[in-house]
Amino acid sequence: MIAFVNADLDIRKKPIFRNLNFTIQPGELVYIVGRSGSGKTTLLKSLYMEIKPVKGEVIVNGFSSRKIRKGKIAVLRRKLGIVFQDFRLLEDRNVYDNLAFVLKVTGTKHSLIKEKVMTALKEVGLEQAAKEMPQNLSGGEQQRVVIARALVGDPVAIIADEPTGNLDPETSIEILEYLKKINAKGISVIIGTHDYDLVRHHPSRTLMIKDMNLVECTIEPAPSGTCWHPVPKQAAVAS
């Protein structure tokens, strides 16, 4: 379970969120929506404790931002899969070795590495690309590798920060469908995005950033010829 309890988040002493109180249950798919610069990345970074609240706490998989020791942050991150907008693949290693590197760093038995890597690549339809170099793949294929890398360590949650921000609309839907498939296995998926039309394609629980807080919202179609737009359901997020 993920919980924010009376949490204030700042960046370089600038207030970003105030008094966040909400929970994400195991196995949920949740969108965090808001315009660029609204604080989505800050919120997601707090889940893997790169940023900690200046007040209150964040609890992730039993670890509290108030109590966690520096050495335990690495333990927490091993149970979280992170998907970045800009891929962050190792360009001097092929696809297989990008995934295997994660397992080696976390101390996975050598005898298990090949099976885990190929299983993760199969989940995103890229087992045939295991020996390819990342720069030889399309943007959509590289993002699928990133999803496989996030999945390879058997995470309890996938955290995706603008995972389709550099992709065309058709490829974006494809990436979202892979994330939905992963979520169907019982893995929590938290997606930060400014693309309301993407959310409309696969509706799920949606939290919108507004006035340094979050509100539950639905994404409903606007009249023909205009954009999709979020409709808040209530003034604050219920836990």
UniProtKB/TrEMBL annotation:
Protein name stated in the entry: Cell division ATP-binding protein FtsE
GO cellular component: plasma membrane
SMART domains per the UniProt record, alphabetical: AAA (SM00382)
Start and end residues of each ABC transporter domain: 2-236
Entry-linked InterPro entries: AAA+_ATPase (IPR003593), ABC_transporter-like_ATP-bd (IPR003439), ABC_transporter-like_CS (IPR017871), ABC_transpr_LolD-like (IPR015854), P-loop_NTPase (IPR027417)
Xref: PANTHER family: CELL DIVISION ATP-BINDING PROTEIN FTSE (PTHR24220:SF470), IMPORT ATP-BINDING PROTEIN (PTHR24220)
Family note: Belongs to the ABC transporter superfamily.
Organism: Chlorobaculum tepidum (strain ATCC 49652 / DSM 12025 / NBRC 103806 / TLS)
SUPFAM superfamilies linked: P-loop containing nucleoside triphosphate hydrolases
Function: Part of the ABC transporter FtsEX involved in cellular division. Important for assembly or stability of the septal ring.
Pfam families found in the cross-reference section: ABC_tran (PF00005)
Highest classification ranks of the organism: Bacteria, Pseudomonadati, Chlorobiota, Chlorobiia, Chlorobiales
One of the protein's GO biological processes: cell division
The UniProt record lists the keyword DNA repair: no
